[in-house]
Amino acid sequence: MTDAADLRRRTADLLAAHPPTTTDRLDFLRARFDAGLAWVHFPQGLGGLDAPRALQAVVDAELEAAGAPGNDPGRIGIGLGMAAPTLLRYGTDEQKRRFLRPLWTGEEVWCQLFSEPGAGSDLAALATRAVRDDEGIWTVDGQKVWTSGAHQARWAILIARTDPDLPKHRGISYFVCDMTDPGVEVRPLRQITGEAEFNEVFLTGVRIPDAHRLGDVGEGWRVAQTTLMNERVAIGGARIPREGGMIGVAAADWRERPELRTHDLHQRLLKLWVDAEVARLTGERLRQQLSPALHSVRAGGAPTGQPGPEGSGMKLAFARLAQQISGWEVEFLAEDGLTYDDWTLRRPEGVDFTGRQAGYRYLRAKGNSIEGGTSEVLLNIVAERVLGLPPEPRTDKDVAWKDLPR
Known about the structure:
Number of strands: 8
Helix content: 40-55%
Structural class: alpha+beta
Strand content: 5-15%
Number of helices: 11
Order of helices and strands: HHHHHEEEEEEEEHHHHHH
Oligomer: single chain
Distance between the termini: 54 Å
Strand order of the largest sheet: 1-4-5-8
């Protein structure tokens, strides 16, 4: 079993062979992946060492102290948090070898082609079609929306309907789509922030080889659940230090602007600080619970420890906290909270919740209760799958998708 001392030794060997001050950034990241120090809980040969997930912090601390370059997780978050765990669980050996290394190093950016304008919050009602020909090539036609980072992505995780004669949760298959292929058109969607980090994507006659399918034909909804559960953990359970993230910015504002303080604002900030700390510690516990699950899946065991409804609860808490904290900050800063740096339409590489003005955080946080599963959907998941409450009536569950009213 790999322990902390072994990881420190391996990290020291990596730094000695590839000094960060003289090694090209991409070369260093590739070497780190090959040494199994990218994500230590992944299998050997795929960027990991089959080590406990919690030991990743040991490697990260050693590399940060040495000034080693990072892989810019804010830019490649969809690949790291959603595509990678799905590939690990459902990908073939060839798919894992092909995609995981450039995904982690950031050489290839990923996006997510799930949501559709005609399906709303009911993802299973998606209408994008994929039809396979005699040569094993799938032709995909449809439209996706709210696609973060599509303007810079090389690959996309895509779900499409492959059998309209089955109920909506069945007859869906899961693919890896090359965003540079003919027939893929990306259009920007301007947001309330003035930016266009989101996009709408039109797929017209896009040809995908069957070798780029994940999971069995018609089992795409089951594969997508792995993506969605990991997405919610990635959004709501990201590792941050104590008083990190948006609550850290709010606390800094309070300390730096004593002339704006009131008793009511102080009491509200204290409550938000406690709630943020509870959420942070809960996220840490959830991450620690995931490591045994990966070993279970590799050994062919049941995926009982994969991210589940608890991740939905984390994402729900994150969205509420982000909106409450950003609202508090705008109110605390008074007229300074109403300023905004730049309304120019641009297409950013990522989201910056701590490096921008309070006005940006306030506006951007409004999307947190929509992206990654709406808060209303997540409340249903928590109610039914965590609390065991009776499910809502669903009259369309056993009706063929083609017969559903649209």
